[in-house]
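Hey, quick one: can you model this chain's 3D structure?
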Amino acid sequence: MQFTIFKETHEELKAKMVDFAGFYMPVEYSGVIDEHITVREKAGLFDVSHMGSIWVKGQGALELLQYTTSNDVSALQPGSAHYTCFPNGKGGIVDDLLIYCYDEQKFLLVVNASNIQKDWEWINSQNRFGAILENSSANISQLALQGPLAQQIAQKLCDYPLENLGSFHFITTEFAQCQNVIISTTGYTGAGGYEIYFYNTDGLKIWKAIMEAGSEFGIKPIGLGARDTLRLEMGYCLYGNDIDDTTSPIEANLNWIVKFGKDFIDKEIHQTQVKEGVKRKLTGLKMIDRGVPRHGYEVYDLDKNLIGIVTSGGFSPCMKIGIAMAYINPKFNQAGQILFIKIRENFCKVEVCKFPFYKK
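Sure thing. Here's the predicted structure for all 360 residues.
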């Protein structure tokens, strides 16, 4: 079991702790629904220090990332970031990740906790470009300050005018009297806010400063349970559930992060999938009947033919209904289409809908 630097903080706050991707992490504090609503309406603070951090530097950095990731890294400007994935050479996905661009010879990759070693080995195995690689996952911690009041809270701790920081951009600055802190306008909740990176030694000081600055705004610590329900309402993929080594970004509705104007791993496979179509498509489903869909539940057409399977599902605290992401036969992937999800032995009606489920 691995621990973040906030272990004792979570325990003092009476968080319910679980094993997540080999890390001892808080799943909830005051309850998933309460924490979820807090992030949607006010602001919440997540410990996401289990995420991995890999530096790619040197003259071959851009070439390596162009080849190993699906999005167009050359389109990034210093201070900008984007979402992308590592194609695995077989049409599937090694991992999904964020890339932060400092310049054409310096990039920071933020990867999923469960895939740190896997990603590290993968990118090293592909490095014929002479890039310098550094796994800093053990040295960098991360907090996510998310919610509509996040900017007002963060601004109390930072001189940089955060309203000037556009979506998917970042700065390295002094924050909460700590140096070399990365503040980025990225997140996994759809509620706005920041992901903040810093050296482990500054972590407790930054946590305390954010919680104090946010006290007048009703800030609360938020666990991984609400992180999951928040991302589900937005239709954001979770690696290991909605995407993995067997799913392609085309099947997962991630065409927008696949740029064919460059050479990259699996380019031909994905071009063929776009041209000829795929046999399954990641689709949004919302309950019409009562019930809460869960991972692994089966999806049927109105004639009770099996047409797919749920990859992520749960109760939406904002919409107050069950929602799901499922891979289904593409011919049923039309908004308004009525289908069934089998919950226990009951065929419960659902409606196909577009992502995101929740709209402000």
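One thing worth noting: The radius of gyration is 21 Å.
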